[in-house]
Queue: 2 jobs
Job 1
Amino acid sequence: MKVAFIGGTGFYEAHFLKDPQEVIVSTPYGEVKTLQGKHGDKEIVFITRHGKGHAVPPHLVNYRANIACLKRLGVKAILASAAVGSLNMDMEPGHLVILDQFLDFTKGRPSTFFDGGKMPVVHTDMSYPYCDFLRETLFKAGKSLNLPIHHSGTYVCTEGPRFESAAEIKMFRSLGAHVVGMTGVPEVVLAREAGICYSSVALVTNYAAGISPTLLTHEEVVEMMKINSQNFIKLLLKTVEMLPEEWQCSCEKRPEAELILRD
């Protein structure tokens, strides 16, 4: 079984992999640089969302190429990271949040594989966008490691690369959001279209605008990710160790997902 890690801000290396090899995968949406290795008996594929040195801003990440790449490699499960600001005082900097819902406030990103032309038009159900089985396994792994982890949370995705205004954060809180980031959508949508189980763990790096007592900086986010990266890696590896070869979940597998494999 192949499991993929998608690394966000502050998660650029995969030194924990055994026998890592860099492999370039070609897709109809572009080439993707992957690092492939093993952890225990599981094959791991690692992709860094923003590229080496955080060269790609969130609104220009090639999300379709990344997910199409993982589909072509036969990945069964994706565990993704997300650096987030907190809108909930109980979700403190350093805490981990297993996402279960999202609000999409992105504006100009290609957000589907099925946009007509050579591909059919498909309306994908997104009632429960994150794989319940992966979420529960992540939570059990986090509790076994005594990590400060929250079982659920609603993620609001903004376009970026700017941070949000205090008024926007106030609105997001009124809509029920718990954390805010810039990369979770359309990644989760594309994974569901591709029929790949997907779960995302948000690492709280700061309180959001208007909640934080200081102005927000990217350096603050990166520094907090560095401080907590070892806990995050422990969580991912423990989760992989706990995953069985097969499981039952509500992630709908549809025939049209196989169309993503064609050129």
Note: The radius of gyration is 17 Å.
Job 2
Amino acid sequence: MSKGKDNIIQFPGTNKQNISKQQIDDLVEETNYHKEEVEMIEHTIDEVAIDVIRHLVDIGCDINKEHFYGDLALMTEILRGMIMRDFGKDHLAQALIDKIITVEHNANGEVQPVINYSKVLTDKDLPNYKLDFGADNETEIVFEPDFEFPEPEDDK
């Protein structure tokens, strides 16, 4: 190797002299912002999971059963997908949510999620249990919460 040369091969079309210090600083700042945002989301999910576990223990749930960990993992992944969507970030759980849940409005104009498990489950998934989705063996379950959803703000 000749003197004064290094063994770094520059990618075609990139030239480190074309990147300003300001651009580098902006990228570092944006990266740090996204990192802090993800850390905050993960911290929030951890806190919610701990609160859920506490409440479940308080009502007598046995958190030492093996299936509990799977149930909790799904719940936290769904929560992660929900929060990530709100922050404009993609997450695999969003695809599952979007596949089985449609958000409709009832006769009063209120938001009403409709869950359709048949889009991901069949009778073979639970061989000892007949999937009963309600009256007339409908495949959708209308979610009727014991609380009111806040009205969504109109996007303007």
Note: The helical segments are 21-58, 66-86, 92-100.
